[in-house]
Amino acid sequence: MMTRRLGSNGPEVGALGLGCMSFGGMYGPTDKAESFATLKKALDLGVSHLDTAIIYGAGLSEALIGEFIRDNANSFTIASKCGIVPQPTRHFSNKRAYIREALEGSLKRLGVDHIPLYYLHRRDHEVPVEDAIGFMAELVAEGKIGGIGLSEISPATLERASTVHPIMAVQNEYSLWTRLPDLGLVQACARLGTAFVAFSPVGRGVFADQAPDPSAMADDDFRKTNPRFMGDNYVRNNARIERFRAYARDHGWNTSALAVAWTLAQGDHIIPIPGTRSPGHLEELAQAVDIRLGASELAEIETLLPVGFAHGTRYTDAQLVGTELYC
């Protein structure tokens, strides 16, 4: 697999990463055997960057990865995240004591003494970002983390953070139907030597060969209350995306791989991390690195799914809490 670099001075990883949120049961009960099979498939495919977080299954995703890598040492470049505190009530913390305690927990669950990339999952506005990055820089100096990441932030926050310490990666949602990062963040990352890690490049499953059926989703499925998957919004969105599915079929590509290939084509510093715990699905997604989209194909896709085409916001007001909006 071709590689891309996590930041201007960071490690090289496979151009396609793997989001491990579903390992923690975020989309239904997790299956250890299937999760392990997916990690094994990742090794076979050259998918070398894993993305997890404390909040994914209350540490379960980290623990599963840690158990797998005991027999596969140095096989992956792992990223994890702290900053979302679910108990006693959900809130965000970027305080020094919390960050250090959270990291120690991540290290223990992963069974390692060093994590190559550690993110603040959400910004805590009670702590100046310069102070928060200063706390993280202490962990870099101690050798406990290799680099600092930020998630769901604005270009202005990245600019401020970068005055304290280089930021290895910014992780925000980015796909054919979520294009906000095009309005400054993708460009700021390129300018500052920061990798842009794109989560949900398959639109939480909407860019699949078969349209997801919201009525069949579990009651606790995130998408059940997501505006783009509800009612008339979903009917209109799916009708438009069906043209994209047909375009993919006509070219001999699977739809999810084409959606990821579009993301890869938006910049050499972009690393998409689609999430799955299915080995077969990961193999389909990995086909994205073999799809080379030129100017004509990108223009055709833009005609099918023009910027701003989606009906409904990407999050409800409640789901937006903690994300930074900048336009």
From TrEMBL:
**The keyword Oxidoreductase belongs to this UniProt entry's keyword annotation:** yes
Tree of life domain: Bacteria
**Pfam entry (one):** Aldo_ket_red
SUPFAM superfamilies with a match to the protein in the record: NAD(P)-linked oxidoreductase (SSF51430)
Annotated NADP-dependent oxidoreductase domain ranges read 16-304
Ordered alphabetically, the record's keywords are: Oxidoreductase
Q: Which InterPro entries match?
A: AKR (IPR020471), Aldo-Keto_reductase (IPR050791), NAD(P)_OxRdtase_dom_sf (IPR036812), NADP_OxRdtase_dom (IPR023210)
Keyword Ion transport on this protein? no
Q: What is this protein called?
A: Aryl-alcohol dehydrogenase-like predicted oxidoreductase
List the lineage, top down.
Bacteria, Pseudomonadati, Pseudomonadota, Alphaproteobacteria, Hyphomicrobiales
